[in-house]
């Protein structure tokens, strides 16, 4: 408890305390996955509240990676613009902000809270989830049997989008596997300097700036 309000340095990033805002799914984005006013107010209020760092809700790396159609994403320029508004405000308050990148896997194409239960039918805006195997999360959910060649690329492309390149600074990214739970995972630079997503369990951060 004595260290709770002490600073912590992760490579080039130093946070003022160890009280961090955990990811909280808001399920408030439009069908385009763009974060809006709700997200600005939700995260902006906390940015001015004294946390050591903010971590966004699970943000999909591709359309089929969403849990529901109301999830935020980071695969298009429109989404980048929406996130820039939020990260810009957070940075103006001196607040580091991180993104939790996620892929829902076999749990994708679900109804958002309050809109129903189970899988959304294709005729109602649902999609076929992409998972590591054809084994469904529920008997009624079909699965692609073959690996989609665009899947690995999505993990590399999404965190690069906000700035077009990786720079050292005040914001980090976290990657979450399709288990339905959060993990302490982050991006790591390879030998060539290119960022790649690591497996769950890595407690070391890259300190790369998400702007």
UniProtKB/TrEMBL annotation:
CC cofactor: FMN
Record keywords: Flavoprotein, FMN, NADP, Oxidoreductase
One GO molecular-function entry: NADPH dehydrogenase activity
Record's compositionally biased regions (Low complexity): 164-177, 192-203
NADH:flavin oxidoreductase/NADH oxidase N-terminal domain mapped to chain residues: 4-109
Annotated stretches, region: Disordered: 109-203
InterPro entries found in the cross-reference section: Aldolase_TIM, OxRdtase_FMN_N, YqjM-like
Signal peptide, first to last residue: none
Protein name as catalogued: NADH:flavin oxidoreductase/NADH oxidase
Biological classification of the source: Bacteria, Bacillati, Actinomycetota, Actinomycetes, Pseudonocardiales
């Amino acid at each position: 408890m004595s260290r709770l309000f002490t600073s912590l340095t992760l490579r080039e990033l130093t946070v003022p305390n160890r009280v961090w805002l955990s990811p909280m799914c808001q399920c408030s984005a439009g069908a385009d996955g763009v974060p809006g006013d709700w997200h600005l107010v939700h995260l902006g209020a906390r940015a001015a509240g004294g946390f050591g760092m903010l971590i966004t809700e699970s943000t999909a790396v591709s359309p089929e990676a969403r849990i529901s159609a109301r999830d935020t994403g980071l695969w298009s320029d429109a989404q980048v613009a929406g996130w820039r508004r939020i990260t810009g405000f957070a940075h103006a308050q001196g607040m580091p902000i991180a993104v939790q990148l996620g892929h829902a896997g076999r749990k994708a194409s679900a109804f958002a809270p309050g809109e129903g239960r189970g899988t959304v039918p294709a005729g109602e805006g649902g999609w076929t989830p992409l998972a590591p195997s054809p084994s469904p999360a529920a008997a009624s959910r079909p699965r692609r049997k073959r690996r989609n060649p665009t899947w690995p690329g999505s993990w590399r492309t999404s965190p690069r989008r906000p700035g077009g390149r990786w720079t050292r600074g005040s914001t980090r990214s976290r990657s979450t596997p399709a288990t339905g739970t959060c993990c302490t995972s982050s991006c790591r630079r390879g030998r060539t300097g290119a960022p790649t997503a690591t497996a769950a369990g890595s407690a070391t951060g890259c300190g790369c700036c998400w702007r």
